Queue: 3 jobs
Job 1
Amino acid sequence: MRVIARLDVKNEFVIKGIHLEGLRKVGDPNRLARAYYEAGIDEIVFIDAVASLYNRNNLFSVIRKASEEVFVPITIGGGLRNLADIEQALDAGADKVALNTAAIREPELIEKVAKRYGSQCVVASVQAKRTASGWEAYMETGREKTGLQVLDWVRRLQELGAGELLLTSVDQEGTKSGFDVPLVRAVNEAVSIPVIVSGGYGQPRHIADLLEVTEPSGLCFASVLHYKTTSVDALRKSIEVARASRVK
Amino acid sequence: MKNIVVLDYGLGNVRSVSNALRAIGASAEVSHDEATILRADGLIIPGVGAFPHGMANLVESGLIPVIRKYIESGRPVLGICLGMQLLFEKGTEFFSTDGLGLIPGTVSIIPILPNEGRLPHIAWTTIRPSEQGRETMFDGFSDKEMRFYFLHSYAATGVKTENLSATVSYLGHDIVAAVQNGNVWGTQFHPEKSGPSGLRVLQNIISSSDGQKL
């Protein structure tokens, strides 16, 4: 299982909020990316936290620099609207693009990107919020309802050619109270492409709680790494321990 | 300083590969120009995408004779991911397509059943080097350092023992991870995205022709 650092970037700062709201500055994205690389991170995801709202793309210069100093896969998301934006993102040095709002507005975009650059480069980002009967997909950084049922939507995304899913629980995001385990299980069972889970990690027992039920392909960590409450090594250890205890 | 050309044939993560080369102290040039390629100290064929598309681009760009000429120079050629797959005789992605035929073998989908697990194989996986691989591509590596980033659904099959540098196990399937045939090298994993271990693989391959470290 991949250990992934997620850096939500606003202007030139990494920021962190709760439920994708109430953003606070935590540091320089390139400095953090370098530190995580040196600590042995498997992958880095940069999300432009405001581009989707204001139609801006200011993450490209961060990506350009990161790709010169960080030799692990880099994903960029937030505010990518069309093939031209995506081409620019890949040119800047990203290996994959994460698409949410644009994919909801124009699902065929996933297909177009997969055809042109290959499925491996298309990460469908899904922001899920609990409802009475399941989960609804949200867009515009977790602010806008879409009316799409998450489980229907992820199956559709797979059909369209998404190579991976980045599944964020809007309810759990930033709370440090654990992953949305039923959500992860339901999505993991609904699709056969890799699922990366983001939102909710606070302590090692949360990894054990998740792995007891289902195993995604990767886990994203943000504030616990940014604030140094844990380390890449410690997270890897927690995964190993959780796996070992599950086998018993 | 060694000058390495990253082959530009309209496919692949050329920037990532050039950045990795610069990080190990080589100079990197992305090019499809014959004279530039033939002057280089090493040639890298990157590649992300589908086999037929990759091969079609190579044919259309007229680069195949240039690659063959370059190989005769004895200097190292490295194919990465799809770039490695194109080195084989044939690919079966979508339909059967002839490859460059530089290494015997066929590229086929990894035979994972839907109930066994997921494709693509996107993961950091620890490889098992062959005896030959241990002395060449992975020279100086400890067991712990043999962890690399993979991203693929297809893999080489029917590879001869003497060409096999490493294998990797995914869901119980033994998959070809790295190959070598003389000065032609291939990695199914992405050395440019595999952290310090990946950079060392690049270094080992680049210094293979004359033993000179960068």
Job 2
Amino acid sequence: MKITNELIALEKQLREMLEALQDLKRKAALLEEENERLKRERCACSEEKKQKVEENVKKIQNEGFDNLARLYNEGFHICHFHFGQAREGDCLFCMGFLRKM
Amino acid sequence: MKIITTKENLLYGIQTVQKAISTKNTIPILSGILLKAKDNRLFFSATDLEIGIQCSVPVQTLSEGEVVLPARYFSELVRKLPETKITLEYIPENIEVKINYGDAEVNLKGWPGEEFPVIPELEGDYSFEIQPILLKNMIKQTIFAVSIDDTRPIFTGALFHIEEDILNLVTTDTHRLAWRKAKINLLNENKYDLNLIIPSKTLNELARIIKEDEPILVKGDQNQISFQTNETRIISRLIEGKFPNYKQVIPNNYNGLIRVKTKTLQSTLERASLFVNEKDGTSIVKLVIKDQTLNISSKSDVGKVDENIPIFFEGQEIEISFNAKYLLDVLKIIEEEDLIINLTGSLSPAILQTANHDNFIYLILPLRTSA
């Protein structure tokens, strides 16, 4: 009798676990669907929005370039080895860096 | 230790290792040369703990052993010895070496050999072989562009950038850059992408002492590197730090190409460089490139030079000034008859290459002149 009771208890546990697993499967499917929708939404930005973002990036980059070029022309290194240190003559690595920007 | 040898062999050993002898007085034994007699060879070792050099010469060994002798006295003495059979015998009781030649005897105090630091045998994360002539040329073609400014240690050394079986040797002082590449013989299956910065002193010594014809075995880890042939071994620490991406500074687009006779340009620049700026010692040369003529001029309070050289030129007319020394340094090591100079603007780098080879590139920044 004792073994039968234990088996019944185990069966109950397994059933509960199966239900929990099915519940998790449903939730995972919902999350995947939501993820897909969000991805689609993100890609479907309006042209106007995209242009605005791109312009903003350009503006920030230009400002960064102007600031670095000014700093270099004022006589300081802008390459990461000696950033901010006073330079004597031109530096290949600063100029290479400005060219790549 | 007791050996019979010649003045020539002793001098060869001393001269090979002498640049590794410490000039600082902090550890007295490092001002000495370790002599070790074994298997009818005499091994010379010296180190200042930054660089270590070992070499060996054939001798007649009567008994094996080792001793450290003060380099200054030992080398001066050997230079003054007569050309005759020389016997060296270590007397452990007095920690001295008895040197016999003809009827004469000199006693020189030293240190016990065991007290000399061991110059390690490197196992090596990497290993490759290279022909000595090739490596010597590579060093000669790049070493002049290293920086002498100790506040920026990475530029006082030369970069060994190993990409698979290509060795790129790069030096720069940030105003100019020399880059020589060559194929090496890898000794294992590893695909390398290694960046090692080697002190210029090590490479100068290597170029000076490597004479043998057999390939040089190069191996090491991220802290040390060794170069060895049958008779000689140099081991050196590496300079810590990250060398900049040298490929990034090479311009891709040019707006002018000059083809000129190397020696003609060199002679003209040598004359022009006579007129040195008294203030900072630099000699500025102005190059005006127009039609198929290169005009080179320089002036100082003392006088001026103005010369025209016929060239082949493609591109826009340009005026550009350089430090004459930076141009002459590279012209001195170029053996090819024709030189190609690619220009990118009067304020941007010029690229010098030989006409027939693409394994050497020299980048030089122009000077900004007020005139």
Job 3
Amino acid sequence: MNDSLLNITETHRLLNRQLKKAFPEGKHSTSGVEKLIELVSNSYSYFDEERRLNRRAEEISNKELKEINSELESKNAFLDSFNYGLAHDVKNHTANLRGLLQMLFKYQKKGDTEVVTAITKKLELSVNQMSSILDGFLFLSAAEGSFEGDRSEINATELEEMVRLETNYLIEGRDLQMTFDFNIDGLSYSQHILRIILVNLISNSLKFARKEVKTVVHARMTKKEDRLLIDVVDNGIGMNLDDENSTMFKLFDKRRKNTEAKGFGIGLFMIKRILDSNKGDIEIVSKLREGTKVRIHLPIDL
Amino acid sequence: MKQYELVILVDDNETAIFLNKDIIEEECRDAKILSYTNSQEFIDDCIENAKSWFSVPSLLLLDINMPGKFGFDVLDELEDDFDEFDLLDIVLVTSSDLNRDIEVASRFHCINGYIIKPLTKEKLIEGLN
């Protein structure tokens, strides 16, 4: 058995022990937790790869050594934000799930069915959010975002339904006009990738909506010659692109100060990765307090 | 626990607000509860309503990691603006147990407590001590 396999087995064992401690009766163990273990193992294999690179570096020339060092630095920076974001998102949702369970037990005891129903809905929502976060991280940690082999004819109605379902938690109680206009008859593409792009763009439109006006989000997909165009247009808070453009695709770039339009998590970063590995492109036109237009170009045949 | 007349919840996550509100409704029965999912909106309202907010015993439950302004940014911005800010009890309610967040929090004199989510009655009482 090589080092990396040993490491993964060891990680599994340690994680399982921690999980058993956290959930002694095993009641709350779900497939989400299994995914998490898998994900953390993946993270560890990144580290293993780095270590292998390090070993090789000892044997080769200084010039190459310098190159490898800079590769390591950027990989480390990626891993730092990857791990930070994963830890934060998973912790946040786990805390919500714990809190909701405690609340559920309390109101079950009281026999308050109305509140119990409300909590159950929130639980369902939280589990969905958690699972879509884990999907995102699995996607980032596994493939580089390329989809050869994942092609099928896109069913526009089904895609729209999936996107609505996944963004539903951002909609509740909002004065909203959301329209979908998919002219993609006979398009063969990865439904998974289109879903990730649409969900993330629309989520940003909903998260950064202006409170004082009715929220308008329009999503459109069109085939133009050999390209697929995806447009998401909103009337949200907008961005000052001179300030935002260079850094907006970074992972978890939420810490910048003193601008109104901030707070992209992994969404745009994932889209960037997808575009990089599928020869795609993105155009953004945005104006503070007026809205944002995002257009994505993807070649249909690579 | 002190008899608060006003409790303000600031957290970008609706579920966290839902949970925290339930605890506060039970522990601070007579308090008026305000909630914000956008930290900038909270800052704006705070500036506008400072006089009435700070004239009664008030408690602020503040999340750290939010889009736009972080919890620490919020405190940075408000701390210098109002002398009365010291009258407000402030507890951070966060999922972060990172040392760097705890350390930053310890540098703010206005923070009374640091609670790791989920909020419970016991954690709230302990956090306020």
